[in-house]
């Protein structure tokens, strides 16, 4: 497939390695220094774009792709206040878009385990919820996109919690940590903890690459759950 990489940092480079191994053609590599080249990407020269940039650039990068009907997969976090606008634009333009706060298979299974536990714990008010995310020191946003998705999953299943902003999420930035998320219910008598720990960025990159292959001939707004757990 002809793949454009928008954002060529840690994630863009890891995805490039996977694309090379699969013999894909890289139509464009866009980063801060050549950001104006974004406008050279068209549906004629590119099958699908993968966008991993930063919270400030994501919305305009995604809008460009959608306006020009270039299917686009986005993993950038920290711009989600504009998600509904992007979704609406994609529907209006009949383009294709997928966002995931985390593209690893393990985390997406972990999201389901988190919801199961939240549902089971909803009657037991003696348990205090503790949420923690740990990432590398270069990360710009906090809490992580994954932690926000976990919080949304808890809100969906447990009416003790109403809004993400009112939930205490502890964010730690330590060395080169690729991404660790902990959910813990603690009472005086015992505690239950679930944890996902990424060993590297490969799981995120593989998931985003698979999402691009899956999305490239589709129209519509999709989640990674559609790809992993859909019919
Ligand atoms: N959804 C997921 O599975 C994952 C999401 N992320 C998120 O993806 C984003 C990128 O992560 P990393 O690659 O680790 O960050 P990074 O900082 O290594 O790379 C970001 C790149 O975007 C470039 N950039 C800045 N302005 C740009 C513009 N206007 N157009 C294109 N590129 C531009 C920067 O120069 C940099 O090279 C972050 O928001 C991070 O939280 C990271 C890992 C997994
Ligand atoms: O910035 C990162 O590195 C990561 N960001 C995503 C997030 O904010 O959840 C996904 C993963 O945890 C790595």
From TrEMBL:
This protein's pathway: Amino-acid biosynthesis; L-lysine biosynthesis via DAP pathway; (S)-tetrahydrodipicolinate from L-aspartate: step 4/4
GO cellular component: cytosol
Claim: NADP is one of the keywords in the record: yes
Family to which this protein belongs: Belongs to the DapB family.
Keywords: Amino-acid biosynthesis, Diaminopimelate biosynthesis, Lysine biosynthesis, NAD, NADP, Oxidoreductase
The keyword Ion transport belongs to this UniProt entry's keyword annotation: no
Record field: catalytic activity: (S)-2,3,4,5-tetrahydrodipicolinate + NAD(+) + H2O = (2S,4S)-4-hydroxy-2,3,4,5-tetrahydrodipicolinate + NADH + H(+); (S)-2,3,4,5-tetrahydrodipicolinate + NADP(+) + H2O = (2S,4S)-4-hydroxy-2,3,4,5-tetrahydrodipicolinate + NADPH + H(+)
Organism name: Portibacter lacus
Domain Dihydrodipicolinate reductase N-terminal: 1-103
Record-level GO BP terms: diaminopimelate biosynthetic process; lysine biosynthetic process via diaminopimelate
MF (Gene Ontology): 4-hydroxy-tetrahydrodipicolinate reductase
Pfam families listed in its UniProt record: DapB_C, DapB_N
Protein name: 4-hydroxy-tetrahydrodipicolinate reductase
InterPro entries listed in its UniProt record: DapB_C, DapB_N, DHDPR_bac, NAD(P)-bd_dom_sf
EC numbers on record: 1.17.1.8
Gene name linked to the record: dapB
């Amino acid at each position: 497939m002809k793949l454009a990489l928008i954002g060529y940092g840690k994630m863009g480079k890891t995805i490039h390695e996977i694309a090379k191994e699969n013999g894909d053609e890289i139509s464009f590599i866009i980063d801060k220094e050549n950001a104006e080249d974004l406008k050279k990407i068209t549906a004629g020269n590119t099958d699908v774009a993968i966008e991993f940039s930063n919270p400030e650039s994501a919305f305009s990068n995604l809008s460009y792709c959608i306006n020009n009907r270039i299917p686009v997969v986005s993993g950038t976090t920290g711009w989600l206040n504009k998600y509904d606008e992007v979704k609406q634009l994609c529907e209006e333009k009949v383009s294709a878009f997928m966002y995931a706060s985390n593209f690893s298979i393990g985390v997406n299974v972990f999201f389901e385990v988190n919801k199961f536990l939240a549902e089971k714990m909803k009657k037991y008010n003696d348990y205090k919820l503790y949420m923690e995310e740990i990432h590398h020191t270069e990360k710009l946003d906090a809490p992580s996109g994954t932690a926000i998705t976990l919080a949304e999953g808890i809100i969906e299943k447990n009416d003790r919690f109403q809004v993400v902003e009112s939930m205490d999420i502890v964010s730690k930035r330590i060395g080169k940590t690729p991404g660790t998320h902990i959910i813990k219910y603690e009472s005086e008598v015992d505690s239950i903890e679930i944890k996902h720990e990424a060993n590297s960025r490969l799981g995120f990159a593989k998931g985003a690459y698979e999402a691009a292959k899956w999305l490239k001939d589709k129209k519509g707004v999709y989640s990674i759950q559609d790809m992993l757990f859909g019919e």
